[in-house]
């Protein structure tokens, strides 16, 4: 019995020994596999994982691109909608177009005190206030000739008014739209004219600057007429010239036509950067470029101007029938820069071509002075021309009639 059982026990022991060794091998294999996975994890992602990261990045870029396209599309739709809405808004509210013509709400420089022209370097200028109507008050500046600059220091309004009767010619300056009588380029022109020996009287139309009232073409013309009469009542026998710039040329021709109707014409009319009429000017203005070819441009944009009572017709002047620049009976000088971006040069030339052959000018000088684009005078810097003193001296310094072209 011992011999039979002994081998069995030995076999069991061998199996137990082999089992323990296989278990140890298995445990060692598991440990090695864990270490391998840990090393692979520490070494970084496998080839499948970078592909997933790249896909995620691409999706994020596509999402951002789609969001940007959506925002751009939204902005574009808003711009197109606004572009389409503006013509209808102007047509329904003609007052908007009138505001854009006058621009009286634009005041540059903003912080200037119009009661103190000295702040603009005009130490020889007095500030007045005139009242052509009960509810209208006009702010006026009077600059004396340069030879009186020292004598003008500390003088009151009465002294300035008496000075108008001195032996110096007077220029009534009618400024354009936007800004005030204290605009920088306007002040520089006053200084030039003063240095040439002229009194310069200028004012803000009703609704401009510190002048009280509501702007209108009729009101602006009446304001100019009132200031002209105020000057004539104090000027004695001194010549009085009218100088209009830009929109002020429309006021100037309206004024001169009225003066000629009542047989009290000025001694000369000077138009700087003039247009033919406000419709042609509005159509030629750089702001109209984006709508110039819009269907019904005249109906949407130009007719509201007329319906607002604004014409400033330098060529026809139908606002004061039968007014026309062809009927103005005084010497006429037109100054225009070829590079004018606001009032195209060809409008000034066209106005001259209308006036020059007119019978009403056969006894007066008619002159057109262009300024080459290389000079860079554009719309409001003709005062910088070193030729301006000679031009004015030759044009205004001769009293004998005769046309010059």
UniProtKB/TrEMBL annotation:
Superkingdom field: Eukaryota
Pfam name, any one: Abhydrolase_1
Topological type in the membrane: Single-pass membrane protein
Intracellular or extracellular location(s): Endoplasmic reticulum membrane
EC number: 3.1.1.23
Region named Disordered: 1-24
Keywords annotated in UniProt: Endoplasmic reticulum, Glycoprotein, Hydrolase, Lipid metabolism, Membrane, Transmembrane, Transmembrane helix
Residues that span the membrane, as ranges: 68-90
Catalyzed chemical reaction(s): Hydrolyzes glycerol monoesters of long-chain fatty acids
Listed InterPro entries: AB_hydrolase_1, AB_hydrolase_fold
Function summary: Lysophosphatidylserine (LPS) lipase that mediates the hydrolysis of lysophosphatidylserine, a class of signaling lipids that regulates immunological and neurological processes. Represents a major lysophosphatidylserine lipase in the brain, thereby playing a key role in the central nervous system. Also able to hydrolyze oxidized phosphatidylserine; oxidized phosphatidylserine is produced in response to severe inflammatory stress and constitutes a proapoptotic 'eat me' signal.
Family in the record: Belongs to the serine esterase family.
Protein's recorded name: Lysophosphatidylserine lipase ABHD12
Source organism per UniProt: Delphinapterus leucas (Beluga whale)
Upper lineage: Eukaryota, Metazoa, Chordata, Craniata, Vertebrata
Gene that encodes the chain: ABHD12
């Amino acid at each position: 019995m011992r011999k039979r059982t002994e081998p069995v026990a030995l076999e069991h022991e061998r199996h137990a020994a082999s089992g323990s060794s296989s278990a140890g091998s298995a445990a060692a294999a598991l440990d090695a596999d864990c270490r391998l996975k840990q090393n692979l994890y520490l070494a970084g992602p496998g080839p499948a994982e970078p592909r997933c990261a790249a896909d995620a990045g691409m999706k994020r870029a596509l999402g951002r691109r789609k969001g940007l396209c959506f925002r751009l599309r939204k902005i574009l739709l808003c711009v197109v909608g606004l572009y389409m809405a503006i013509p209808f808004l102007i047509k329904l509210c003609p007052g908007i177009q009138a505001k854009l013509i006058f621009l009286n709400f634009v005041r540059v420089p903003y912080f200037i005190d119009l009661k103190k022209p000295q702040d603009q370097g005009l130490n020889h200028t007095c500030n007045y206030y005139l009242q052509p109507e009960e509810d209208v008050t006009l702010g006026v500046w009077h600059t004396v000739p340069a030879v009186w600059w020292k004598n003008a220091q500390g003088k009151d309004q009465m002294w300035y008014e008496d000075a108008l009767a001195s032996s110096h010619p007077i220029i009534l300056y009618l400024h354009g739209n936007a800004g005030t009588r204290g605009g920088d380029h306007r002040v520089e022109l006053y200084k030039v004219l003063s240095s040439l020996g002229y009194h310069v009287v200028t004012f803000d139309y009703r609704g401009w600057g510190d002048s009280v009232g509501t702007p209108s073409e009729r009101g602006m013309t009446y304001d100019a007429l009132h200031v002209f009469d105020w000057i004539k009542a104090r000027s004695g026998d001194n010549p009085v010239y009218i100088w209009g710039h830009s929109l002020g040329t429309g006021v100037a021709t309206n004024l001169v036509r009225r003066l000629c109707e009542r047989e009290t014409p000025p001694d000369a009319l000077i138009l700087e950067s003039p247009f033919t009429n406000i419709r042609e000017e509005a159509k030629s203005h750089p702001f109209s470029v984006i709508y110039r070819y819009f269907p019904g441009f005249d109906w949407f944009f130009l007719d509201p101007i007329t319906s607002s009572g604004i014409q400033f017709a330098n060529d026809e002047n139908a606002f004061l029938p039968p007014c026309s620049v062809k009927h103005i009976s005084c010497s006429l000088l037109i100054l225009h820069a070829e590079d004018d971006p606001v009032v195209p040069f060809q409008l000034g030339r066209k106005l001259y071509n209308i006036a020059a052959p007119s019978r009403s000018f056969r006894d007066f000088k008619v002159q057109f002075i262009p300024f080459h684009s290389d000079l860079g005078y554009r719309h409001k810097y003709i005062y910088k021309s070193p030729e301006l003193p000679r031009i004015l001296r030759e044009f205004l310094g001769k009293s004998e009639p005769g046309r010059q072209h």
